[in-house]
Amino acid sequence: MIDAIIIGGGHNGLVCANYLAMAGKRVKIYERRDIVGGAAVTEEFHPGFRNSVASYTVSLLNPKVISDLELNKYGLQIVHRKVNNFWPHKNGNCLAFLLDDNELRKEISQFSIEDSRALDRYFRDINMVADLIREFLLETPPNVGSGIKEIFKTIKFGNRLRKLSIEDQRIVMDIFTKSVSDFLNNYFENQYVKGAFAFDGIVGNYASSETPGSAYVLMHHAFGEVNGVRGVWGHAIGGMGSITDAMSKSAAAKDVEIELGTSVKRVIIKNNKACGVLLDNGDMEEAKIIVSNLNPSLLYNQLIGEGELPLDFSRRMKNYKNGSGTFRMNVALDKLPEFSCLNNQLRTNLDYLTGGIIIAPTCEYIDKAYLDSKLNGWSKEPIVEMLIPTTLDKTLAPEGKHVASLFCQQFDPDVDWDTNREEVAELIVDTVEIYAPGFKNSILGKQIFSPLDLERVFGLVKGDIMHGNMSLDQIFSARPMIGYGNYRSPIKNLYLCGAGTHPGGGVTGAPGHNAAYEILKDIK
Question: Which pLDDT does position 221 carry in this prediction?
Answer without folding.
Answer: 85
